[in-house]
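Worked example 3 (structure in, sequence out).
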């Protein structure tokens, strides 16, 4: 192959290489514009250093990724296939494809909080389908319009750069822009090394904000969502779940519901394991063959946290704030659904003889009418943070449920399916209906530990940002990396009812 300076091949290749740099420079501007979405998708930094790091990382990282895309795709094509018209067309197509992927990733990150990756593809497909097909025709038109605008930009940028190549070569500002990008790249990595060594979370919590950047750790994930008290972490490695981070903001309940059944239901919560075992043994050995034992209730090891979830249909993340406000369960207002018979923290919730759903703190002397709908749970305190507890019931929908269920799932299901008030449960609780759900997953936050489960796998993230994954059925520890997209989605679900300041 003749590559002398005067050969036609060398001349075309040199021109295409120069054109490619200007084409890439134009795309860096477009990528910076689109990637700015990531900067507004999360909570803003709280310090000047955090803001500075965010700005220089945005400039350098997105520019670097764009340049790498040019080097891996358009540059080799220019060498092996140096035909300007064809290269410009292929470059416009490749660049459009890359920009479209970036746009989709930015939209997914804005909506779901994580980037496109294999483990989250089902959720992403559902999001895109609902956005483009499940919504109005206007959304579909906007999507095609964006695609047309991107392709038009690429074609115009490529043609303009080729036709004005000699003029563009006379400009000097690209060398200053290149120097700025390189400086920002070096500064951002230096700052990140310093922040990682000094536990400066205002920087490290930005890991994985931009695509193909630093991988998110459990520690930085908790810090990013304000579940890690940075000051106490530095002093005593403790996790803060106080009102500063979990202030409950009661939702506005738009749904009105009158229970569509004359049935009543009682939930018996036992704080003493021995009493529960005695009652459960007598009930399961009785002649009543419609009583079923459940062994898939995942709940907090602290009985007060578990009882709170049962009463409110919420994770115990909100317990402190709600008890300070003495807030009656919001879903039970303006109806006659709930009655609570409590001997301790929840005495401010009224006991109503005519209520449809009664939650009773029970003991060995509490009578159970086995002929009426009920579910009984062992909520006694254990040393472990989270455990799979026992329960028994005569309600078929709980007995037939597959996968794990939490106490707030039990209440959610009762309101939604037993009493036919699904909109009320959706607006005022954070659980799932064990009768209608397609797969079992959930989140809790108890005793300073984030708990998330999907199917049989439970993930625990402690106050130091360390994590453990285990099998719910067998109890053994599972190896493998954190499912970061699932944890992010779980945290977003957990914080649904926090005030904007607390998020």
């Amino acid at each position: 192959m003749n590559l002398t300076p005067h050969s036609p091949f060398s001349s075309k290749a040199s021109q295409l290489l120069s054109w490619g740099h200007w084409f890439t420079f134009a795309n860096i501007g477009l990528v910076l514009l689109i990637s700015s979405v990531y900067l507004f998708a999360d909570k803003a930094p709280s310090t000047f250093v955090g803001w500075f790091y965010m700005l220089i990382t945005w400039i350098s990282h997105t520019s670097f990724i764009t340049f790498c895309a040019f080097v891996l795709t358009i540059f080799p094509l220019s060498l092996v296939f140096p035909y300007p018209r064809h290269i410009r067309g292929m470059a416009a197509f490749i660049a459009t494809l890359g920009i479209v992927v970036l746009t989709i990733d930015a939209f997914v990150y804005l909506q779901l909080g994580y980037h496109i990756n294999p483990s989250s593809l089902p959720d992403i497909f559902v999001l895109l389908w609902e956005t483009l097909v499940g919504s109005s025709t206007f959304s579909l038109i906007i999507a095609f319009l964006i695609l047309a605008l991107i392709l038009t930009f690429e074609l115009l940028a490529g043609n303009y750069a080729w036709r004005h190549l000699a003029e563009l070569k006379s400009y000097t500002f690209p060398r200053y822009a290149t120097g700025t990008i390189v400086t920002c790249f070096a500064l951002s990595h230096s700052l990140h090394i310093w922040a990682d060594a000094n536990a400066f979370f205002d920087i490290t919590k930005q890991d994985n904000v931009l695509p193909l950047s630093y991988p998110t750790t459990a520690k930085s994930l908790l810090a990013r969502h304000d579940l890690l008290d940075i000051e106490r972490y530095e002093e005593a490695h403790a996790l803060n779940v106080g009102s500063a981070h979990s202030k409950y903001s009661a939702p506005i309940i738009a749904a009105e519901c009158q229970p569509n059944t004359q049935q009543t239901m009682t939930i018996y919560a036992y704080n003493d394991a021995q009493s529960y075992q005695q009652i459960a043994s007598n009930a399961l050995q009785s002649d009543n063959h419609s009583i079923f034992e459940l062994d898939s209730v995942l709940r907090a090891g602290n009985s007060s946290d578990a009882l709170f979830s049962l009463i409110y249909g919420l994770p115990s993340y909100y317990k402190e704030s709600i008890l300070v406000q003495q807030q009656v369960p919001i879903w039970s207002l303006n109806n006659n659904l709930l009655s609570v018979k409590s001997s301790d923290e929840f005495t401010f919730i009224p006991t109503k003889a005519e209520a449809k759903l009664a939650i009773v703190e029970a003991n060995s002397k509490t009578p159970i009418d086995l002929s009426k709908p009920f579910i009984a749970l062992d909520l006694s305190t254990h040393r472990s943070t989270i455990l799979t507890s026992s329960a028994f019931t005569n309600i078929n929908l709980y007995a037939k449920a597959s996968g794990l269920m939490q106490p707030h799932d039990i209440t959610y299901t009762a309101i939604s399916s037993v009493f036919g008030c699904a909109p009320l449960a959706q607006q005022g609780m954070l659980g799932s209906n064990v009768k209608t759900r397609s797969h079992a997953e959930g989140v809790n936050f108890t005793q300073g530990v984030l708990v998330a489960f999907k199917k049989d796998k439970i993930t625990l993230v402690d106050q130091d940002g360390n994590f453990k994954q285990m099998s719910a059925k067998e109890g053994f520890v599972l190896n493998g990396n954190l499912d970061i997209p699932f944890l992010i989605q779980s945290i977003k679900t957990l914080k649904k009812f926090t005030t904007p300041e607390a998020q």
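Notes: The first helix runs from residue 8 to 41. The longest strand covers residues 292-300.
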